[in-house]
Every structure is written in structure tokens, then in C-alpha cells.
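input
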Amino acid sequence: MVMTFSEEDLSPISALQHLVFCERQWGLIHLEQLWAENRLTVEGKGLHEKVHEMETESRCGTRVVRGLMVRSLELGLIGKLDVVEFHRVSTTGDSPDSTADEPAGVMLDGARGLWHPVPVEYKRGRPKIDRCDEVQLCAQALCLEEMLSITINRGAIFYGKPRRRSDVNLDADLRRETLSAIHRLHELTRAGKTPLPVYGPKCKNCSLVDLCLPETIQRGRSVHDYLLRSINDVIAGTKGPVT
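output
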């Protein structure tokens, strides 16, 4: 995939997670600028804010950076990463070749040796059936790779419900899926039209379900007709008096 984007045309990395999870959700948020909160979104927002507010830390062999801004002009993406862990891979100043035992490293200001970056994404809930979280993480790694001129072999996702960290192998299959999602993201952005809904179990917990109306629209009933029927029902008293 060969792309070149200007700074003004960059899309948020988080949009990929919305897109892979549900193309209509992506359209409502990123095209129509609609948003609604529920308990899940509030908890998720709070988790990200807490992670970003924590101070940068260093421990034996690892430096942890929070809220790092990244972007890729080649892929047309921009975003703020929850956490990037830099793991020391060499105590010398010479860059080692990337191997299965020792990945390539980069130099950090004020630190001796070479360090390999590992992006870590925080999610409030549980692992999902699809790979929308993994795609988001992989896109973060691709941006870091472009900025640091290095290959990143792994990342991680911390899920709040089981309070468990899952390592993610950034292999060829995940990279292909991520690049395909990026292509679809820009394709839909250029089209500028919100996709139609596909009703399913995941709609139940979506904060946008009342704005999306997935069952109504998927059954071929227009939103206009739905609203007219609702108004007529209220007037007729079948849903109680108007207050």
C-alpha cells in the first residue's frame, strides 16, 4: 500500500477500531460527528485519562512513555498512544540487527544503549470476538515504525475487566488486515457517506444504538417513517401523554 497524505488529511488511529468493530459506528462518529455516552464509554474514557496522566517511569531495563503522539504521512494516520514501553536490547551504541532473540533498537535521549519500542493499548472491557483492538494496536506500531525507522515485532493490550495483559504478535496476517482496514478507512472517508447498519449482538451495548436505529433501518423502514409512527403513537395515547 503506497499512500502519501498531508497533515490536514490524517485520520485518527482510533477510527480504525471503530471501523473494524462497526462501519456504521465509524460513520456516525467520524463523518456525522455524533456521540452518546453510556456506562461503558464513560469507564473507557476514564481509564485512558488515568493512563495518560500517570508520569513517565523507568525501571530496570524498561522505560515507559505515556501519551506519545505519533503519525504516518504514508498511511494517513495520527494519534496519541496510551503507553509505549522501551525495552533495552543492547548496552552498546551500535544498532544490532533484528533477530528472533534480540530485536533492533533505537537510541533514547539521556539513556545508554539501544531500546526496542512496544506499544501497549488499554481497554476497559474484555477481549472482543473480532480483531478491532489488535488492528488499532498494529496501526500504532506501523506509525512508530515509520517515525523511528525500525521494525516492531510485538505489542500488548491491557484489558480492564479480567485485569489481564495480552501480548500481540504483529505478524504478517495482522499487518495485512490492518493495511486493508486503513485502505477501507480512507475509501469511506473520501465517499463521505455513513454505511448502513448490520444489526447484531454487539449493537446491544453500543452507546449510539438510539442514534443508529439498526433494527429499524435494516428492516427497510426509513428513519423518517419511524419517527412519524412514534409521534402518531404518542398523540394517539398508546405510549402515554406527552410531557
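quick obs: The mean pLDDT is 83.
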